[in-house]
Please model this.
Amino acid sequence: MTILITGATGNIGGEVVNHLIQQKLPFRALVRDRHKASQLEAQGIELALGDFSQPDTLDTALQGIEKAFLVMPNHLHQVALESNFIDAAQKAGVRHVVKLSVMGAGELPSTFQTWHRQIEEHLETSGMNWTHLRPNMLMQNMRWFAQTIAQSGAFYNCVGNTKISHVDARDVAEVAAICLAETGHENKSYVLTGGKAITFDEIAAIFAKALGRSVSYVDLPPADLKAARLANGEPEWYLDAELELFTCWKQGTGTAVTQAIPDLTHHSATTYEAFAQYYAQTRAQDFFSGS
Ligand SMILES: NC(=O)c1ccc[n+]([C@@H]2O[C@H](COP(=O)([O-])OP(=O)(O)OC[C@H]3O[C@@H](n4cnc5c(N)ncnc54)[C@H](OP(=O)(O)O)[C@@H]3O)[C@@H](O)[C@H]2O)c1
Model:
């Protein structure tokens, strides 16, 4: 069996690669830029150059592939771009696509959830087998807050004391690797969460302990958060989509805890405390100024 991993230079795809290496499963990684993928190449991983925005580049990458993992960042044209990959996979005779989606797809009215459901539907009607992985907010998003924590010991959002069942991307990737390696996951959706929903104040306390420095969460009015992040150069469409999601979360839609990770991996979902310890060990320099 040959597996194709997209997003191999990214957060989740990179962790899927690690799991497939551990399991000694043969796979190929689709990358846009060979230089960015030099670490993968150094590990002896077979690379195929391709870009979802240039469908012609996908045909060679998909030759001989039976199962594929599909992921890309949120993007204004995400539905069209992921659909390009699905169409190319179907044409190449791929039998099964494991798609990285999002919790609330098809249920919440927010942009990211709507787009992911549209892509899921495109995959479901392709004739190929599918598995939708729907994670809640990733613990690894703490990287987005590292700069302000380093500068001022604080991070900012507008979700108040809402509880969210954050999930570790390494657990999500482990589930993806299981769905790629095994049968029995065809045409199923898995909602992937941590074992507990917690507030950003609780996260601040956990990170403060793990990093050995003060960390606090500052809640801002949504308009102030948007203005600050716009001034920081982030695109307005993206900020609006995030604010929609935060509004949904404030209504309690991000708190659900599911058993999919324990059921599939046979271990508990990673706790925020364990994640923070790991992140403090591997990324501590990101959270301190002058480093
Ligand atoms: N963050 C969260 O809390 C969260 C929660 C649930 C779901 N999600 C979903 O997770 C996805 C993002 O996953 P991630 O964090 O692993 O993303 P990521 O770290 O930004 O990685 C994205 C990968 O996609 C590749 N890529 C980008 N554009 C591409 C294109 N046109 N063609 C082919 N490959 C392309 C990138 O390659 P390059 O290295 O060349 O750029 C990179 O390897 C989004 O769809 C998001 O909705 C995120």
